[in-house]
Amino acid sequence: MARKNADNRRELAIPSLELLEAELKKEQYRNSHNRVLRNTIFSLLVVAALAALTAVLLLPVLQINGTSMTDTLQDGDIVAAVSNSKYKQGDVIAFYYNNNILIKRVIAVSGEWVDIDKKGNVYVNDELLDEPYINEKALGQCNIDLPYQVPDGKCFVMGDHRDTSIDSRNSSIGCVGDDEVVGKIIFRVWPIRNIGLVH
Question: From edge to edge, which strands make up the β-sheet containing 122-124?
Fold first, then answer.
């Protein structure tokens, strides 16, 4: 009798084929779900890393601090720049200065002559610049000898708010070297009401 009971228990302990198939399907689903989850997380990490590299190397996003570029850019505006772009007279660029990033407008490039009169009129190669982006002309904090020739591999920059901007007119900043340029400011992304190209 005891042996018969033991045999019955053994028979009860063996799961049915349907139960085994159900457990196998659950395990396969669990494995498939985990694999999909791992692949999704990996894909998201790769996308985030590529986005970060793009933002840092190709399209830096910067916040404006200060008033040296008003009315073109305001304190607190967020802008995007294009790295390694060629720049020319009139472009707004970001560049490194003493572990900070400054934003100014290119007035002249290497080899050109810059002159500024007492009223703040700017001449490049003896031609008066048409500057629709400024509201008020000023000589500002100028301590360089004028006329001034821009050295090779550099550009002469000025802020649009000429009276307060400290820029290439002052020897403390001087001209900006190609290797110091972060990029050309092309687009304002914030605030929403002012989204658009930067001219």
Answer: 127-128, 122-124, 113-116, 148-149
